[in-house]
Amino acid sequence: MSSEGLGPFVRTFDRGLDVLTCFSADRAELSAAEVAARCGFDPATARRLLRTLESLGYVDGAGGRYRLTAKVLDLGYLTIASQTFPEIVQPYLEDVAQEVDHSCSLAVLDGDTAVFVARAAVRRVMSIRLAPGTRVPAAASAVGRALLSGLTDEQLTAHFTRFPPVAYTDRTITDPRELLARIAEVRAQGWALIDQELERGVRSVSVPLHDAAGAVVAAVTIGTHTGQIDDDTLFHAILPHLQTCAAAIERTVTIGPVSATMFTGPQPVTPSSRVADSTIDSRPR
């Protein structure tokens, strides 16, 4: 572990963390010599560190072999416990998914992308896959525009200056002035619709979630294939359920103080521009 640029640095603490992280599923048990070799320590240092960690209860040594104990989980428990928002909203998403027979997701804004942090999936032959951690361009997606509706026009102008909109299909709106007008509509009506701007054949609708102060903190969304759902079903069946879901989450979850860490959860964020399970290529055109 490098200490460059970190300021005051406790090397012994650093080495102790190296010892803890040198264990893995493939190497659940290690000798002091093996720890030394993996961490680049001399054997005497490795033994001292292992004995210290054993006395603290983080490793268990028997027969010259060491393994991590369950106490190691305590190191990450508080972080995980403070990032439970995806688990809290999951029942709401599942209710909507069951009612409309389409997968429902929740996302938050991160720079120029919307990051999906929770999802209730419905099994279909043709499905739109947006697993937690998936990212989609904010300007070209319904969930992204719902999230961007929480910004002022001045903030949006600065946003599009920093992140110039790009085209993903021949329908993608890239003119910042037109995007401002579309997002103003989202802000006024309380929902966003994208028709094949991100992917050909994919239409999505989204509703923003507000905290007690009225700030947009997340958005729920449902994506459909244009050949499966007509406009009447989208507006009169799917959208009302999504609005009801958003209102319920606002009443029971986001009505209290909201922190950014609530939404990220323990899921790894893996950048992806693939939205559907086939024939999808959302590289800029």
Task: Report on this structure.
The two termini are 42 Å apart. The strands form 2 sheets. Strands 5-4-3-8-7-6 form a 6-stranded antiparallel sheet, sandwiched between helices. A two-stranded antiparallel sheet has the order 1-2. A hairpin with a 6-residue loop joins strand 6 and strand 7. The chain has 285 residues and is α+β, with helices and mostly antiparallel strands. Helix 2 (32-39) packs across helix 3 (43-56). It folds into 2 domains: 11-76, Winged helix-like DNA-binding domain superfamily/Winged helix DNA-binding domain (Arc Repressor Mutant, subunit A, Orthogonal Bundle); 82-264, Beta-Lactamase, CATH 3.30.450. The protein has 10 helices and 8 strands.
Can you tag this structure with a few keywords?
285 residues; alpha+beta; Arc Repressor Mutant, subunit A; Beta-Lactamase; 2 domains; 6-stranded antiparallel beta sheet; 10 helices; 8 strands; 17% strand; elongated; disordered N terminus; disordered C terminus; transcription; HTH_MetabolicPath_Reg; DNA-binding transcription factor activity
